[in-house]
Arginase (Segatella copri), 252 residues
Amino acid sequence: MEKKIPVILLNFTGVYNLEAFASNKNIIHVDCQDMKGVDCYCDEEGREELHRRLAPFPAEAIHFIDSGDFHYLTEYWVSRLQEPFSLIVFDHHPDMQQPEWEGVVSCGGWVKDVLEKNPLVRHIIIVGASDELIAQVPIHLREKVLFYSQAEMNHHQAWPSKAGKLIHEPVYISIDKDVLRKQDAITDWSNGNMTLIQLQAVLRIIYAHENVIGIDITGECSATLDYFTEVEDAAINNKTNVELMQMILAES
């Protein structure tokens, strides 16, 4: 009997109301729209409430986590894993900034938190970040992470062999759709230039060679523009979310 991986959707901004895929009756919805202190920066009170609200749901799932402002939730999901793991992140931004305030987790620094605070993480591989942003990561942190920059991914269609040789444990995958070109994703942050087909090709190779134990997808476009633009943007993101979800369910 094939295992069925749950699909969990965290709704912070209401943007999923504009995306048809979210109405699938098999998706578990977690309403977070009433929460304070969780947008981009998550304070102690917000974190405690988030952890309480998300405690019933497994890390071993497909998690849709709204806009990139909530990407720090990957740090929470992998903190729930009980065995050594490697983390593969598809993101235009390395998300390794120093936080401005002590004790606050942020959408721009969560990878650094996983690297420094999670004793079970063995490797972190960041795919599709811009060379310019990678260069801004402090050298002592850069040496601990394997980067496949946007430029490298444009020249190598397949999952590079050194990543495959590096990983000997289950993997958790985190996808920020801002790694994609604008034709495939409209996000709150600057976009990379990977195509959806390129992303899917790499994902298929990872699924073929690794034991994927969980995955999250972020990068929705917050509902801050005029209604017609919101609907157009949501349609692009909806199409990408559908394709990613169907592919992941088929591979799982």
About this structure: The longest strand covers residues 121-127. The CA atoms of residues 10 and 30 lie 5 Å apart. DSSP finds nine helices and ten strands in the chain.
